[in-house]
Structures are given as C-alpha cells and as structure tokens.
Amino acid sequence: MLSLRGVTAHYGPSQALFGMSLDIAPGQVVTLLGRNGMGKTTTIHALMGIVAATGGSITLDGQELIGQPSFRIANLGLGLVPEGRQIFPNLTLMENLVATASNHLGRADPWTVDRVMALFPELADRAGSMGSLLSGGEQQMLAIGRALMTNPRLLILDEATEGLAPLIRQKIWAALGAIRDEGLSILVVDKNLSDLLRLADRHYIVRRGQVAWQGSSAELLADDGLRDGLLGV
Ligand code: ATP
Does ligand 1 have an atom closer than 6 angstroms to the CB of 39? Predict the structure, then answer.
C-alpha cells in the first residue's frame, strides 16, 4: 500500500535521510525504531509532506506523494498523531475532535465522535474542556481520536506514549490493538519495545537516516545483540 524507496531529506545543508526504504501492506502494523536523532520523525514528516523529500520515491497505491502538499496527502488517507500531540489549546476537546474530521475516501463505516468516545471512554466527561486544560494522556487520546476522525487508511503515530503514566500507556496500547484488529494499517514510533513487539508485525531499525535492519517481532526478540547495538535498550 505505502512504499518508500531511497528517500533522502535535508535540513538546509545537513542531510537527515540517506535513502530510507520501507513498505506497509494493508492491515499491517509497522514500527520505526532507533536511537534519538536517527531520522524517525524526519521519515514521518517526509511521508506527510511536512519536510520536502529531496530524492527517492514515496507511493501510496502507486501514486507519488513527494511534491504534494500536506493537506492533500492527509486527504489521500494518511492520518498523523504528531509528536507533542499539537492539540488546539483554545478549542474544546469536542471542537478539536471535529475540527479536521472528514471522510475523503468515502468509508462506509466512518469514525464518529461516539466511536472515538467508545474507544476512549475517559474523553466523554471532558468533551467541553479546553484543549489546554487536558492532561497529557487525555491530549494523546484526543490526538488519536482526531486522526481517526479523518478516516485514514494509515494511522501514523510519532512517539505514541511518550511522557505518559503506565496506566494511560496501557490504555493507548489496548486502543491501538483494537484499531489494528479492525484492519487499519499503523506506522508507530515509540520507545516501549515490549509493547511494540506485541502490537506490530514488522519492525524497521533506523540508523543515520536509513534502515539498518528489518524483521519480525520474533526475529527482533531473538536477537539480543541487535537490541543492544542498534536500539540501546
Ligand atoms: P528523536 O527520537 O530524537 O525524535 P528521530 O529518530 O526522530 O529522533 P529526527 O528528529 O528525524 O530523529 O532527526 C534526524 C536528524 O535530523 C538529526 O540529526 C537531527 O538533529 C536532524 N534534525 C531534525 N530536525 C531538524 C531541524 N528542524 N533542523 C535541522 N536538523 C534537524
């Protein structure tokens, strides 16, 4: 469904991606792993058109995404839960949820406010609260709900559970598991390897802007040296 081939990206004169290649099939859950500063966020930003890729190819069902504006890429079915959540502080939770809602792909059973509230029941009581007054956990659940309300084909999470309490993290992993079980493709960056091993089918370890290793959860679990060497966990 989604394919990156030899993607390069730069920040001014400094190169951040040195030929990233990866594939995501329909219904697949894929992780991007790697130490800080290796290029995970840049890969996601290149995908979304937030950072302009300077070379290579990014295709969604054969359609080239490089060069397209972010809003069009979102309309084609890529839903981003950004690092830092980026909740609108002066809108209520409900307003945040519906602000960017859409169904550009004409999904027969679209995400609704009720479905998001069923996925994250703790959001219902906070519907009228301003974004700025929500806890980090509430903001992250809202950010996931907001992305789902765009009815994406691929949900992309950059740091899915960073800075959240263990109980909240568990709720988010459970929700992502439920979304996966419904057949939605997910690309996720996070530091909690054990949760990622349970959730995902395939893992890509990113090192210096390219893929240093790729494989299944079983392969990654079996290789202590790989985890120590490339992940430092
Ligand atoms: P982290 O887990 O710390 O977010 P990451 O794997 O997501 O790390 P990136 O944020 O993609 O890594 O960074 C890749 C490289 O690009 C790093 O060397 C980083 O310093 C550089 N970089 C990232 N953002 C910028 C920017 N806005 N301007 C210049 N260099 C940047």
Answer: yes
